[in-house]
Amino acid sequence: MKQYQSALAKPELSPMMRQYCLTHQEYDDYLLLYRLGDFYELFFDDAEIVARELELVLTGRDAGLSERVPMCGMPHHAVDNYINRLLAKGYKLAVCDQVEDPALAKGLVKREITRLITTGTQTDVSAIDKASNNWLVACYQQKNYYGLAVLELVSGQFLACQINLGLTDKTLFNELVNYQAGEYLLPCSMQNQPLAKSLEQINLNINYLPETNYQSLDKTYLPFDFKLEDLLPDKLESTQALAYGAILALLNYVLKTQHSLPSHLQKLQFYRISDYLQIDAASQANLELFTTLREKKKKGSLLWAIDQTKSAMGLRLLKQWLEKPLLDVKEIKSRQNIVQTLLANYRERQNLRDLIGQVYDIERLAGKLGNGTVLPRDLLAIKDSLELIPAFKQILASLADPNLTNLAENLQPLPEIVDLINQSIAPDCTNIIKDGGIIKPKFSAELDHLRSVKTDSQTWFDAYVQAEKDKTGIKNMKIGYSRIHGYFLEVSKLNLNLVPDYYIRRQTLVNNERFTTKELKVRENEILGAETKLYSVELELFNQVRDQVKTEIKAYQLNAQILSQLDVLQSFAEQAEQADYCCPEFVETKCLNLKAARHAVLEKLAGRANFVANDCELDADNHFILLTGPNMAGKSTYMRQIALICLLAQIGSFVPATSCQLSPVDQIFTRIGASDDLGLGKSTFMVEMQEMAYILHNMTHNSLLILDEIGRGTGTADGLSIAWAICEALNSDAALKARTLFATHYHELIKLAKQFKSIRNYHVTVAETNDSITFLHKIKAGGTDQSYGVEVAKLAGLPKSITERANSIMEELGKQIYQNKLTISKCEQPMANQVQLFSPEQAKKDELLANLQKIDINQLSPLDALHKLNDLVQATRKLNSLN
Questions:
Q1: CB of 17 within 8 A of CB of 58?
Q2: pLDDT for 336-377, tens place per residue?
Q3: Rounded distance, CA 259 to CA 267, Å?
Q4: Which of 35, 58, 587, 614 is geometrically suited to a Cys-Cys bond with 779, CB 3.0 to 4.6 A?
Q5: Annotated binding site: which residue ranges?
Q6: Whole-model pTM?
Q7: According to its record, what are the GO cellular component terms (predicted)?
């Protein structure tokens, strides 16, 4: 039992603490932030947790009990910083605010939970990476059908899809993981299912909800005229119906945590996974799309390498496009056409880049309007951004491109909103309304009068004191103010005989007396009343302006969508020019033909002059490249760059090559590198085989396979056998003929090209000089039977004694094990015709020699010696029968 629950059972608990405990009881799994004056306080267990996590001072408070209860607090004006730190540590927070003026309260101040904050419902944009979305994802299941609903409260983006899964399909898992959501909502019925366990094992934040959340919408916090249909597409297709349950759960969770449905939620967009190139989470990591594989840094990722965006909105959209490359060639070409236009018009492109760089994050500003967290300077940012819209429209219209003209026509400058903000909000205002100076002079006559009362008061006081000095003859009279006694006239005791009868004594001090007058009291009431009213009037005026600006949320969101698209497309054009990228050509016939292709990231890191470009030719007849060569020579780099080029082409970008011709790729699978999964009890080899099994079960004839060193995690014979069998399976008559790049150190696989016309051998070239090698990084036709492992070991700095010994062992192994020519029959031929991989005669000879070496003549009797001799003769005869 928690401390507050124990305290609640005690009758002597103070009324205020009882109110706290009763409130906490409704939100037991949340930390309760309880507003007391200018602070948010936490008590009991919550106080101990927060004091420990945030290193705050833990104090105590009287609560009517025998002992003080633990307490810690945080100032209300800085609470967001503390909230963000607690969210980052995985806590959920309930904020309990005062909902009536304490000065007007009779008894306990009324308090209510005003918001619940979780990692998926966080709306403080200062705590969210500008390049990322903070998604909230809900999932619902019926048999093998799953509905998915996705929402970001910061921007209002609202998505949904429905997925039909096979028994071994990981499509849903990959889709969920790829969102990297702040929070996942799953029904309690899924808690013990393999999907939920898999998500938990990679430490995703999962919240299990009762089934009722997926069945109907809780209308407690909804306006009476709300219609769910207003958020949904005009027609809900049968293939989208199951997503409805996930949508309900998502909206119910938002209503529970926000106590309202934010007005900036966008109309729901349904999407189909089959409309996009699919890249599973492992492949995204292997290709280093968003972070590097080892250090998880942004620098060194594909996103970092190609990013030429000028706004946070554009950067987020670029990331979304990389997460979901297109399959629709028509839509891809539409993007390409805009990039071509921008590339051909340098001056206009630079002007657009300058303008985009001046635009604020309109998408998140619209979200702040909808969430009710917009600040005065946010309104100025909206106004400044809107003032740039006419310039955008003018430049886009001058380019005479139909696609850009359409974008220009949909941009909305909203001059009425610009005028309103220009007239109302002071350009040098702060974000703290209590500080004043938010509203411009002449916007409100009442506000101007209240300000004049406050600012003119000092002049009046100076004149009044001087007049009283002249009347009374008290030359050292002063005027002052105290919070207890208000404004007063201070007279020294030496001059008390000069004080007139109409002075009213307020306070007696050691050397002075303080007085007031009826006239001074009237002015005091006027000034203090003006100061109090000044804040409330200015706050009310700001709220009126904010609400008027809020009416155009949909227009801001449309502007944000257009400008972010424009930013990404100009980024493609800028990158194409700076890095000499070419425009990909999409064709219907299956192919992947590249000339002088490069790796976008390594080229940027090393410099164009230091990177060796290579070609690639794959088509329906020759769809399989078998790549051999030493480690460090560039096999993995070559394969990765092919995958990255396909991905870039299908987001509408130009690509790092002199020419590119391809048909769309529907899935990219990578099996690169390996590591143990000790948490799940899986070895390197098991992880490798599971990933390979997933690829073989889910690939299609339009997929791209990047397979590196298949079979290396086990013994040589096992690994070679598995790699050989996989190559056969991918090239048999019944195979799907997916485009495949297969890198290996098993040189025996080169012979497969004689059995399968679809296989082409390539190798990475190496220059040999004396006892050293130089990697040329050039891909050439033909296989190689050398791995140069010892030479690579030398380059790595292994001691000379070890590398020399390794060379001698390698020569000996070459004679003993691989001296017989390897020939393996096609898999469809009878096993009797199949020659063994390694020489059985040599193995028997080795065994015979080993047995001879074990014999100790001094320990043998004559009879034992005869038996041993007979055994050796029989073994020799058996060996001869094998030859």
A1: no
A2: 999 999 999 999 999 999 999 999 999 999 999 999 999 999
A3: 20
A4: 614
A5: 629-636
A6: 0.86
A7: cytosol
Sign, Cα dihedral of 184, 188, 191, 196:
negative
DSSP 424-446: HB-TT--S-GGG---BPTTS-HH
533-568 pLDDT, tens digit each: 888 999 999 999 999 999 999 999 999 999 999 999
For 467-471, the CB contacts below 8 A with 24+ separation are 471/500
What is the Cα–Cα distance from 544 to 546, expressed in whole angstroms? 5
Find the angle CA(675)-CA(681)-CA(687) to the nearest 5 degrees: 40
Q: φ and ψ at 106, to 5 degrees?
A: -105, 105
Please, what CATH class does the domain formed by 135-275 belong to? alpha beta
Binding residues for ATP: 629-636
Pick among 3.40.50.2000, 3.30.365.10, 3.40.50.300, 1.10.10.10: CATH of 585-675+683-798: 3.40.50.300
In the chain, domain spans: 1-117, 135-275, 445-540, 585-675+683-798
Q: Alpha-carbon distance 338 to 539, whole Å?
A: 46
- Using CA atoms, how far apart are residues 513 and 491, in angstroms rounded to an integer? 5
pLDDT at 144 over 90: no
The answer to whether 396 and 413 have CB atoms below 8 angstroms apart is no
- For residues 808 and 798, give the distance between their C-alpha atoms in angstroms, rounded to a whole number: 15
Alpha-carbon span 357 to 321, nearest angstrom: 20
Tell me the pLDDT band of 841, cut-offs 50, 70 and 90: low
Q: Taking residues 737-761, what's their average pLDDT?
A: 94
The closest of 738, 716, 741 to 667, measured between CA atoms, is 738
Does residue 811 surpass a pLDDT of 70?
Answer: yes
